Amino acid sequence: MKVLVTGAGSLLMGSIASSLLHRGDDVVSLQRNAPTFDGNSHAQHVLADIRDSESVALAARGCDAIIHGAARVGVLGNWNDFKSVNVDGTANVLAATKMHDVSRLVYVSTPSVAHSGHSIIGDVAQAAVTGRKHSHYAESKAIAEQMVLGSDRNRFAVVATRPHLVWGPGDRQLVGRVVERAARGRLTIAGTGDALVDTTYIDNAISAHIAALDALHSGARCDGQVYVIANGEPRTVNELMRSICTAAGVAFEPRYIGLALALRMGSMIERVWPKVRATEPPITRFVAQQLGTAHWFDPRPARQHLEWVPEVSLDEGFIRLAQWYALRL
Predict the structure, then answer these.
(1) Cα gap 232→240, rounded to integer Å
(2) C-alpha 78: how far from chain center
(3) CB 77 within 8 A of CB 140
(4) Strand ranges (DSSP E) for the chain?
(5) Is residue 220 part of a domain?
(6) Is 81 a domain residue?
(7) Distances, alpha carbon 171 to alpha carbons 17, 152, 179, 286, in Å
(8) Which parts of 202-312 fold into alpha helices (H)?
(9) Beta bridge partners of 71
(10) Would 12 be classed as within a structural domain?
(11) pTM of the prediction?
(12) What's the structural domain count of the chain?
């Protein structure tokens, strides 16, 4: 099988591309920076921006499937910054899929497209919600997911995945930020830290997307469906962050801010921070909601329809994370 993987410069998408190569697939990676898995005769690299429609079309030529994970993440940037990558970039992928008769498309979404700020307790994937002004990332990803699922699926089969808080060795999003802030004594938790949250160890996120690719075909149970991908082991925010800090060898000494106050602070910081700083802000409304409310999901749909089971438990994942940090000392 020949597979185009977009956004292969990220930990998850690059690891998916590497795993596909390891099992013998031909892989075309589209990313902005030089790949980390060069030298494989089955690998082809297209260094381009997902917003470049011609490059996306070139990369998709001759491919049987696409796993589309290129995205702008975070909170910095205006609406057009996020829309041009997450919405317009996805439109380029859809156009390339139709142009070259690609038969399968796995769209990598996010649980935040259906998170309205209230607790999610054991739900299946709900429909993406649009109209939210406080999170350009979630809004743009929701629009893109709706585009993908509403496209002409007579031409190709499509499935949307929502990997939830993927982490592991080398992760700069969750693990990197927690460790960096804890090391500087600036780790902040909105609420009490007792909210239950599910996460996904990187190896499980990789295998879930490959399972989705393999299960997908026209008329398959997963065709046109959305699945939250997670370990299925909810832990409190305190437990998760403490385990990350312990693995990295830094003290877990957070300061706690009431959720209502954190939401107000986040809203204010979102408006002011981009004007004075070029780094990610310490707290945003979105981050406060993620840390202060429960969000864990029913794992059965993904396991039943994709025939996928997480192989690495959270406890084993934290052991591997500690080993990785030990090698860096």
Answers:
(1) 14
(2) 20
(3) no
(4) 2-6, 26-31, 43-47, 65-68, 104-108, 120-123, 157-163, 166-167, 188-190, 196-197, 200-201, 226-229, 235-236, 255-257, 295-297
(5) yes
(6) yes
(7) 16, 35, 11, 20
(8) 202-215, 237-248, 259-276, 285-292, 300-305
(9) none
(10) yes
(11) 0.93
(12) 1
* Alpha carbon distance 72, 59 (integer Å): 20
Closest CA to 126 of 241, 298, 7: 298
Query: For residue 191, how far is the Cα from the chain centroid?
Result: 24
Indicate the residue type of 322: A
Taking only the tens place, the pLDDT of each residue in 81-101 is: 999 999 999 999 999 999 999
Residue 246 sits at φ, ψ, to 5 deg, of -60, -45
Dihedral over Cα of 279, 243, 303, 287: its sign: negative
Mean pLDDT score across all residues of the chain: 91
Examine residue 264 and state whether it is found in any structural domain, yes or no.
Answer: no
d(Cα 100, Cα 62) in Å, to the nearest integer? 7
Domain extent for 213? 2-168+199-232+297-311
pLDDT of 256 reads: 92
CB-based contact 112:215 (threshold 8 Å): no
CATH number at residue 112: 3.40.50.720
Q: Please, what is the angle between helix 136-149 and helix 88-99, to 10°?
A: 20
Q: List residues with catalytic annotation.
A: 137
- Pick the range with the lowest mean pLDDT from 85-99, 192-206, 256-270: 256-270
DSSP structure class, residue 201: E
Residues 20-79 pLDDT 10s? 999 999 999 999 887 766 557 788 999 999 999 999 999 999 999 999 999 999 877 889
